[in-house]
Amino acid sequence: MTPNILLITADDLDATVPGCFGGTANTTPRLDRLAAEGMRFLRAHVPVAVCQPSRSALMTGRRPHRNGAQGFEPVLDEVPVLPDLLRPVGYRFGILGKVSHLAPQERFGWDTVRTEEQLGTGRDPQAYARAAAEFIADAARPWFLLANAHDPHRPFHDSETEHAWWPEETRTDVPPPSKVFDPEEADPPGFLPDLALVRKEFAEYLSSARRCDDVVGAVLDVLDASGQAGNTLVIFLSDHGMPFPFAKANCYVQSTRTPLVIRWPGHIAAGRTEGSHFVSSLDLFPTLCTAAGVDAGPDLDGRCLTSLFTGGRQAGREHMVTVFHETAARERFEMRAIQTAEQLYVWNAWSDGDRSYRAENMFGHTWPAMLKEGTENSEMARRNEFYRTRCPEEFYDLTGDPHALDNTAGTGRHRKERDELRSLLLADLQSHGDPLADAFARFAAERRTT
Q: Mind telling me which residue stretches traverse the membrane in this protein (predicted)?
């Protein structure tokens, strides 16, 4: 029987925040329940850590430079999008939130559209529930519903920015989360300093993550009430990591790792965990085509995941390549990275010793707090300066440095491993026709001679 497909996305949710991925207790109870009923992927990544390119890659199965959406451009006319393949076998298509982040909108041919404004700025669980219930009520044909929560994207719950954007007297359609976190229970991730303002902002972020979970729960409740859950493939993931320094709009592990959960009754046993293969959101395109019984075509960068659902093995999943092209402000900071379970290598094509990095992850309290701390703390000052200017090459031994705090690329340490990852990255960029493959080949040749 052709399955329905419910694809739920979070906006800027770090992979380690959900409880089922080791996060703060009681942050995401509904996602935790979904994970218990399905399968968690511990090494899942998106190809690029910014919203529209990440979502475009998911819906095309192609890397940003091959689908046209390296930044906030539309998908190329000649590139098939998922509805092109599923509509001929009878699927209806609906989208809730983040509508403008899949462009051009007419290419996707949505039968039902609910914008951010119609969903309480993309943060009202009951608005999502009403829209989902209306869409899936027609069970005569299989359906594909893309439910995009706008949390935990800025502005965070109860933050100064939220109050400025949505004054309290007009904020009736932006409900509070079902749990609000305080700074004492909001331990920052290890790549950020433990400062008072960082804790404050991270607590606001966790509260927004809980409201995202409220949206997840509301949509899943509607699915359960419809009686269609048994024939519905449910997928949850985030478009990239949190909007903090050293995360979103970069190529670090926490930039692109996503909390991927898949539930498919009759195909995936409850409580499964896949932690030995690197998988990508690019893989969802061919996976969904397989589930729907259609040919995804040969010209894809993703690979079908279905054999992993039952414990199978797939060769070639020992590493992950990620990219970055353009910030939300349309500034280009070209980066390429490759990671294994033990190491991370990053090439910053933009870093020339003079240019300064700027991105949306520097908004809010955290980056100013880091700068202030740097006036008295030389180590913090060094890390701040590194973040702004980087260096052409970064290498991290993740076994002893899981938060990538110690860049050893300019030292004699890990030379063999660094050279190996550089070569692997070059081969990957060349095989996928990356627009900077030739530039990286020249860079790699220079490094081999020094």
A: none
Coil, helix or strand at residue 395: strand
Listed in order, the ranges of the chain carrying CATH 3.30.1120.10 are: 320-448
Q: Are 245 and 363 in contact (CB under 8 A)?
A: no
Look at residue 171 and tell me whether its pLDDT is greater than 70.
no
d(CA 293, CA 52): 28
Q: CA–CA distance from 88 to each of 106, 135, 142 (Å)?
A: 17, 19, 11
Each residue's pLDDT tens digit, 207-242: 999 999 999 999 999 999 999 999 999 999 999 999
How many CB atoms within 10 Å of residue 388? 14
With b for 16 or more beta-carbon neighbours within 10 A and e for fewer, the 391-404 pattern comes to ebbbbbbeeeeeeb
CATH class of 4-310: alpha beta
Which residues belong to CATH 3.40.720.10 in the chain? 4-310
Instruction: Please report which confidence band the pLDDT of residue 139 belongs to, taking 50, 70 and 90 as the band edges.
Output: confident
Q: How do strand 232-238 and strand 260-263 relate by DSSP bridges?
A: antiparallel
Cα–Cα distance, 356 to 390 (Å, whole number): 9
Say whether pLDDT at 450 is over 70. no
Structural domain 320-448, CATH architecture: 2-Layer Sandwich (3.30)
